[in-house]
Design brief:
The protein is mainly α and 90 residues long. It has a domain of 49 residues. It contains three helices and no strands. It is elongated, with a radius of gyration of 22 Å.
């Protein structure tokens, strides 16, 4: 993974967190403090998209730079319990 895709993932993760928390704060403000005229409450509008955005944003921030598997690696597809000949180690 190159540095550009890593930075893009971190930027989009922060953006998703900001948008998700902003939606929740806006819904709570309208429910608890002052209801705006354009606010019409339905739980899926307030929490249906904000919670997945927070979850995805947090995941993108926590995932580090992962190494892509080498397609030429002869050990791809061999589990830890098998050797190159397919024999079990058990």
């Amino acid at each position: 993974m190159d540095i550009f895709s890593w930075l893009l993932r971190k930027f989009l993760g922060i953006l998703a967190l900001i948008i998700g928390f902003s939606i929740i704060l806006w819904v709570l403000y309208n429910l608890l403090i002052e209801r705006q005229p354009e606010f019409q409450w339905h739980w899926s509008q307030g929490f249906g998209i904000s919670i997945p955005m927070i979850t995805v944003g947090w995941y993108w921030l926590k995932v580090g730079r992962t190494k892509r598997p080498d397609p030429n690696d002869p050990n791809i597809g061999i589990s830890n319990e098998q050797n190159e000949n397919g024999a079990d180690f058990k």
